[in-house]
Amino acid sequence: MSSPTLPPLTIVHVVFSSRLAGAERHAFDLAAAQAAAGHRVHVVSGGSPQLRRVTPEAVTHHALPFPLMRGARLAALVRRLGADICHGHLGPACKAVARCTSAIRIGTLHVGYKPHQHERLDGLICVNRDQWATLGTYLGAARVVYNWPPQPMNAPRGPRLREQLQLGGDQVLVGTVARLHRSKGVDLLIRAFAQYAPSHAALAILGEGPQERELRRLAGGHPRIHFLGFRDDVDVALADMDLFVSPSREEALPLAVLEAMRAGLPILATRTDGLQQLLAEAPATLVPVEDVTALGTALQARIRGLRLPGHAREVSRVRVMYDMGLYDRDIAVARIESFYRSLLPVEGQARRSGPSLDGSYA
């Protein structure tokens, strides 16, 4: 909860995505936490039914469905709401937030710093230390606040994943959760799995996105590669997996990997900047980015090390204890609020401006 000595804030989060993926789930989970702390919280979307459906009960949803003059319309809405903070998530939202001069303008770097999207914002939240180090000539304030695994969504319970895929007890289930976009490298995983995975392994791909048709063609109807689309019950699905793979070409600090860590899954990942930081001290396997042979060889070894053909269902699955201390939701949400308040005008003084970088995480 907010300190009783500090007044609640009016916070507007802006998310113009059409689908719910990691950055969007982060934004909605942050909004829910801030509303629970007593703040007046709003979310502005482009009108996606999926995003409207997951808006927390205590958060007010607003739709700006057409791109034409969206920045000006957002600025008018933010002014009407009397917002203290306008917080953008992903590039299109951050560009629109820059127009909202009546509030403190914040952006979270879910991907990376791009001057044309972020340089006019008052403050930036970096989700890893490498991002903070690449801000260059950015003149606003910045702080490192690591992502956290969002709270599980209240999803309707259907068949468990292994039951849905009709897997036997001696079969290994490899899984990934990702937006189906080239940056996520799912094509690399499909190629590696098809070439190197033993016959007792199956691959579950959870997510949707613009590359789905291309990825299905690449899989070519492989009987052990399953496209399962978007799922509300990610935590339940992860509990049925034996190995989690993140084959990304670029990553900041992916929520899917944090959720896999929370589930205790063994992890195989590519050596992107964000994942190197996240998994530096963890018992995970890291391979070079965009190297199908290295990914496939490691995949084969990890699968064979998990369960051998012919083992009974009673054979224990491997579970890993990860140190999640740096990725605590309550601490991160409090740190974001502290960052907000550090940028608010002090009575009788102008709004803070100019460079102020804080790469620490305390």
Overview of the structural elements:
Strands 3-2-1-4-5-6-7-14 form an eight-stranded parallel sheet, sandwiched between helices. A six-stranded parallel sheet has the order 10-9-8-11-12-13, sandwiched between helices. It is globular. It has helices spanning 22-36, 49-53, 70-81, 91-97, 115-118, 129-133, 161-164, 186-196, 212-219, 234-239, 255-262, 273-278, 292-306, 329-343, and strands at residues 10-15, 40-45, 60-63, 85-89, 104-109, 123-126, 141-144, 172-177, 201-206, 225-229, 243-246, 267-270, 285-287, 356-358. Helix 8 (186-196) crosses helix 13 (292-306). Strand 9, helix 9 and strand 10 form a beta-alpha-beta unit. Residues 312-316 have low confidence and may be disordered. The two termini are 19 Å apart. It is 33% helix and 18% strand. With 362 residues, it is α/β, with parallel strands linked by helices. It has two domains: 10-148 and 328-358, Rossmann fold, CATH 3.40.50; 161-306, Glycogen Phosphorylase B (Rossmann fold, 3-Layer(aba) Sandwich), CATH 3.40.50. It contains 14 helices and 14 strands.
What tags apply to this protein structure?
362 residues, alpha/beta, Rossmann fold, 6-stranded parallel beta sheet
N- to C-terminal separation? 19 Å
Strand content: 15-25%
| Model regions low in confidence, pLDDT < 50 over at least 5 residues | 312-316
- Name the structural class: alpha/beta
Give the domain tally.
Answer: 2
The radius of gyration computed from the alpha-carbon positions, rounded to a whole number of angstroms, is: 21 Å
The top-level CATH class of the largest domain is: Alpha Beta
Q: Count of DSSP helices?
A: 14
Assembly form of the protein: single chain
CATH architecture of the largest domain: 3-Layer(aba) Sandwich
Return the string of H and E elements.
EHEHEHEHEHEHEHEHEHEHEHEHEHHE
Any idea what the shape is? globular
Question: Please, what is the average pLDDT?
Answer: 90
Strand order in space, largest sheet: 3-2-1-4-5-6-7-14
The name CATH uses for the topology of the largest domain is Rossmann fold
The CATH superfamily label of the largest domain reads Glycogen Phosphorylase B
